[in-house]
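Troubleshooting entry. Yesterday's outputs looked truncated, so today I'm pasting the complete records for two proteins to confirm everything comes through intact. If either block looks cut off, that's the bug. Protein one:
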Amino acid sequence: MKKILVVANSSTYEAGAFEEVNKVLLEKGVSTYIYRQDRCLTGDYLTFEMRNNHPEYFVTIDESRHSIDSFTAIWYMHPFLPRDLLLYEPAEFRHFISSQFMRMREALWTVFQHKRWINDPWRTYQIENKIYQSYLASSANLEMPNTIISSNPEEIRQFYTEHRGKIVVKNFATSPIPDRVVMTNMVSKEDYLAMDSARVAPAIYQEYVDKLYELRITVVGDKIFVTNIYSQEDAQTAIDWRSKPLLNDFQVRMEQGEIPEILKKKIRHFMDSAGLKYGCIDMIRTLDNRYVFLEINPAGQWYFVQVKTKVKIANAIADLLLL
């Protein structure tokens, strides 16, 4: 019998996404096991052993121990540590603790490269860098907003002036700060005057593109699921449609959409160049009907899309794991 390992967390979102895919896999006679990194203090463990010159890697889930070799595929859902370790005291040990658990996971990525991954974590690690994303999007002829990624206050001020103050700022990398989600925000005049503070960390500064609506494009293998997000119907979601979250959902109108075939070809070229089987692409449909690429999240959320639009993303992920 085929066995699939899921490397994730026990959060409500990931539990829901896992259950949807698990239902499909169970119908196909496939066993699925979810290792939750945030339960590393209470029973879920990764263990490497070398005995009699024979290496073996194990995962312990709910007191049941499995050899990684026994799994045919691995679904990697961006695991993170529990709050007790993210907020560990003394604080000087937090980086050390995180790096030790990271090395354990990286060993999985390397030793088991021959397994079927969604996605290969090394490729995910590369593509999460927004500068690399920009290079690949450009090579796929995807249109992008004018952008500067920098911590140089003078360059950012000049960019602000060039675009007459209509620029946004967003994170260059996922924030490791517990319970903090930093949204995309307009750069205000006050921000401009206080721009010297930009020296402490690079960020993404991008021209603001007026939107007809936004798109969440979920790519699963050769399948492309398009969702229109009508963020402009609410002032609170106009800059960042994630600004009104709900449980496994967002308080913004969405519906199944469609994009031109030429754009689908560009997206497939981009995904092939990135070496990804799965990803969530954010785009803008402009007032003059152009499609503008913003970013891809190679481990992005899809469950809310399925809840909103009833498209069968879980089935597509299950099929991809079984190829």
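Protein two, checking that the full record survives here as well:
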Amino acid sequence: MLRKMLLIAAAVAMPVGVIAVTAGTASAAKVTDTTGAPATASCTTSGGTLTFKVPIGIVTAGGYQAPVKNKGQQIKVAGVTLTCTSSAVSQGSFTGTLSGKIKSGNPTDTPAMEYSCTGLVGVSPAPGGFLTGALKIKWNAPAGTKFSEKKSGIAVTSISGGVNGSGQGTFTIPGNPGTGSISGGFPGSDAGASSTSTDATADTEGQLATACMTTGGISTIALGSGTATLQ
């Protein structure tokens, strides 16, 4: 009798065990999230650097001296971390790493004008100048998830520089609203035309100004935090 009861109990328990294993397998399976149009993402940014091929500064006696020739500028963007959410990603927040290069110049500027720190404020390029760039974001999907688009490309044609309420410098892309462009993941419904991002510098405007007047000027600017909307 006891043996019969044990056999019945084992038979009843077996489906439960099978269900548990099946459920575990299902939860571990990769879920594909589409990041194509009209997917959007809202992000915070942190860290990263802007590195100038030609150091910039403010010309002063005994301090910064501009190069002899104006050959334009190249800026390397590296190490910016994005932490984002999106209605197209149901598994929670995810991260990305942004990097890229920007080229700018204005043939009508003197070297002192071209490589001046004052050029960080206002909209670039100014009349007669040019600015082109390409930034890329490499996405890290949440655990158990894969993205149909693993990268986003951002075309840069203008930048707006300013100062925030905490006295830090800011950089907004695009500098001319409504002219953004995104390819790959999270392009929004208008290919990123209405997208925008603003990063603040780690140092204040005053600290940057002091560094601009040193002999070597500024070759690298550390970034702090900011926001980005891919839409």
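Both blocks look complete. Sanity check on protein two: Residues 33-230 form one domain.
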